[in-house]
Amino acid sequence: MKVSSLPLSESFRCRLERKSLPTLMLLAVVLAPLLVASLFWAFYRYHISSAAKGVTAAQSSASPSQQTAPIDERLSNAERAIMFSIAPLTSLSAMMTPVDPDPVASFRQLIALPPGAAREAPRIDPRRIRMIVDRGVVEYASAKTEGDRARGARLIQTAALVGYPPARDLLVRNYPQSEAVRSVVPAQDVIRYALGPVMAATSEDSKQIFLALGQHFALQGELDLFAKQILDSLRGDSRPQLIHRVETLLDLLAHVPGACGALARLVPGAGKVADQECFLGENLRKFIETTRPSAAEEEESKHRGLLMLNQVGER
Length: 315
Prior knowledge:
Elements: H1 2-61, H2 64-86, H3 103-111, H4 126-142, H5 146-161, H6 165-174, H7 179-184, H8 187-199, H9 204-219, H10 223-234, H11 242-253, H12 259-264, H13 281-290, H14 295-314
Helix pairs in contact: 4-5, 5-6, 5-14, 6-8, 8-9, 8-10, 11-13
């Protein structure tokens, strides 16, 4: 019995091993990748840990501002991203500067000279101005229509605006009787042209021209305009012998019906004044001495003249 049991046990073991071999091979196939993955993961963690220790050591030696700078920059970028993400599409001010409502005014302010800076006076060739006046006189004299006369008068007005005395004299002389001259020369300009020689006491001829102009405005019922422009032009006049020049002016106005009364209404403290007497000398002198000069009139006049001069040059 003993002899026969040994071969049986060995035979059973052989069958058992043959049955368990496929199972072992299956387990080896499954466990081998897991083992490799575990080894790779351990190596990776060791490498990351070493790098992190190096970065920590470097950061510990850096200044606090260097440590916080990247964080602050990231936070700033994040805040901007949030702002753009919540801004409505119609809210353009979140992404660009608002549109200037008045770009012309802004540009003028940008190019304006600082206070107190002197502007260089434009250079004008007097020969060119005289040639323009001669051309205007020829066109006016040879004109067949009022339109042609107006074009000639406009050339003369161009020279008068930039300060050419002969041109101003021509316009003042012809203003009362020429519709063409009146159509291109504003009343304020011609009154200023006439008043300048009178206050400079140049000649008796200039006084007669001024007197004729005043009588024209009296006939037209425009003495208030005449008186106002006289005061505007006299503001701040600091030339010598002011009282004498004022008396000369008032003597001329006494011959223009209603002129003294119109002027008295505009001069502080003058009260009612009779046309024949025109006692305004002291009040008018105080007004002139206590008001600032109106230099803007001549500046604006020259500016208009330069613009017209450029137009003449383009023809």
